[in-house]
Design brief:
Structural class: alpha/beta
Number of helices: 3
Order of helices and strands: HEEEEHEHE
Shape: rod-shaped
CATH class of one domain: Alpha Beta
CATH architecture of one domain: 2-Layer Sandwich
Strand order of the largest sheet: 1-6-5-2-3-4
Largest sheet: 6 strands, mixed
Length: 134
Amino acid sequence: MEIERNFQSKAKLSLTPLIDMVFLLVVFFMLTTTFASNEAIDIGFAGDTGEVRPSEKDSIIVEVRKNGLVTVGKKIFRHADFREHLRKILKKDPKTKILLTSSSSATVQDVVIIMDEIQLAGGSDIIFIEREEK
């Protein structure tokens, strides 16, 4: 005698609704996320506005050199020492203009780091000038 067995097929789980929910969540989080705003330093280039180069008494010339060295006048500083020196200068006269130039061996990253140091020291009036050949 043969007994007939009923085989029940397993219930199939459809992944389509799950994928739809994942995409909906991704879109939701993309739309509701706020991104950090970048702060920028307002810089000018000498000659952009037709202004004459500021005089030596109301400005300082900062030359960026390679390997993170900075020259102010005839003194050479590293980044951290430069910030403290500049902070002292700006404490005496906060309206001091900073004329920024770089040597041919300085990288763009060196210049950006020095611009950050100037901002951290409280400087806000930065003007790029062309390096004078000696």
